[in-house]
Amino acid sequence: MAPVPARTSEAIPLHTNTVDLAEADDFIRLYHSEHPGAGSPQRRMAEVRAEVAATGTYRHTADELAFGARVAWRNSARCIGRLYWRSLKVRDLRDLRDPKEIADECVAHLRLATNGGKVRPVISVFAPDAPGRPGPRIRNDQLIRYAGYRGEDGGVLGDRRNAELTDHVISLGWRPPVTRGPFDVLPLVVEREGAEPAMIELPRDAVLEVPISHPEYPWLASLGLRWHAVPAISDMRLRIGGVDYPAAPFNGWYMGTEIGARNFADTDRYDLLPYLGRRMGLDTSGVRTLWRDRVLVELNRAVLHSFGEAGVTITDHHTESDRFLTHLRKEEEAGRSCPADWTWIVPPMSGGLTGVFHRYYDKEELVPNFFPAGTVGVCPVIH
Ligand code: ARG
Question: What pLDDT does 375 receive?
Fold first, then answer.
């Protein structure tokens, strides 16, 4: 790909940039190289250039949008689940800019993705940024997030990671349930410059949850642990051919360790290991008894067991590691580089037991891709 000059946030705010023609050209060329029947790339490039000259941006065709979103997934270096990138269902909602309408479509997204437990990968693409006209944004980092209520003692009830978001929605007027719990679903907030933000409560039936139980420890079910079926990232900017879509929530299905080895286990999340270690009667007097490791295994068995019992799609880290190695092979056969970030790809437990641990990966960043909200430009260097 042609080099793209790095831009800094001091230079020009993102949404006043006109589309980078080199990046647009690269994307059109990529689209046509993977769609040999789609006509002449030169003609489409000329069209795009004329539209950018006139308006500062251009409108992707529906096919370009769907392809761009799928390739953004294919290029996501942190994702182990990319084997099924072609199956992503793309909802073209680019004409929606109104925060309330967007919030409602996010609910529709959840219903479609949840599919009664047979989770489907879906992305909903809302209005893009345009010169002088920034697109809408979703404030929540995932469509479904559990509240984290700060207590006076510095403790948090619920998901500590969401304490700031919880403060924010309360400041916007959200009223927590009368009895606060560790798994209260937060409302969704959608913002747009020059418009009232919308805050909506997710309807109960749009949020499928799984109660957590253990195949051998009946007491674990009585703790009331639960997790939601669909992980839907909603704070990343989708960038295709120089056009930024700041509101483009997307989901796959869970890998068990995300819940069992991170959300429930991290000390800055639910931090459940010490309590569970005591309940399991383990010797927690020192790290060398490996009591935490033992709890981690049982907690992760509980997560996989519970989703299975509930008929909700979930994958385990052994299966997903094998699938990712298959994906790498297929990408290589297609003559493509497959960028991957080892520190994200290797699962957070039993790393060395999985094939993905024992190798190196291409590191270059490719576009289309997903970028953290609030970042400007593409990335420091495009190769
Ligand atoms: N790790 C995040 C979570 O626990 C979800 C990230 C996306 N995961 C996925 N399987 N698509 O909620």
Answer: 72
